[in-house]
Amino acid sequence: MNHEPIKIACSDCNMRELCMPVGLSNTELDRIDEIIGARRKIKRGETVFHNGEKFTNLYAIRTGFFKTCITSEDGRDQVTGFQMAGEIIGLDGIVHDHHTCDAVALEDGEICAMPFAQIEDLSREVNALQHHVHKIMSREIVREHGVMLLLGSMRAEERLAAFLLNLAQRLHARGFSQSELVLRMTREEIGSFLGLKLETISRTFSKFVDDGIVQVKQRHVHIVNTAALQDIVNPR
What we know:
Blueprint: H1 16-19, H2 26-35, E1 39-42, E2 47-49, E3 57-63, E4 65-71, E5 77-84, E6 88-89, E7 102-105, E8 109-115, H3 116-125, H4 127-153, H5 156-172, E9 180-182, H6 187-194, H7 198-210, E10 214-217, E11 220-223, H8 226-233
Antiparallel strand pairs: 1-8, 2-7, 3-6, 3-8, 4-5, 4-7, 9-11, 10-11
């Protein structure tokens, strides 16, 4: 693993608003800075943690794109989620004190280790931090519930439309364009996440292109008609 520690205070980080609570005093920020580990560079394809590994840290993604996955009984990878800058990975380890999935970098990135025991101790004193940790966990529960709904009841078109809308909305929250997406994951990985075969993903993308909803050039997706995607997910 490439351990190139670069210590940058949370207060100076441009991702602070996304992974740290707002409204902390300088003293509270300093205390958080003391326990957050140095930033670590991660290479594409590198694993942050493995299924079964002892849980000690949450990881704040500073740059890059990641996927979480589990290996199914027949040896295939099942993608359980995609995470981007400003999001936290590692929450799966809280319940049983060990990780229940692998987290893999889809591109070069940087993460900050957040030792959970110390974060938990500090959050008892700093209400804003405790509230923030609960909010992150709640967001993860809502996300998982959304994925279950997605896989439980939706047709292929609905699944892909919901996936693209969700990705666009998350990128938009980070200041990126809401209509221009660069997919960091392969179509196979999207299919694995959505419970669809690769050919179904390709066919659905082609249908969206034919219907004038999106334009696709390799991994670049331009959403031409957001309302049409929303209508597929929630028909009026």
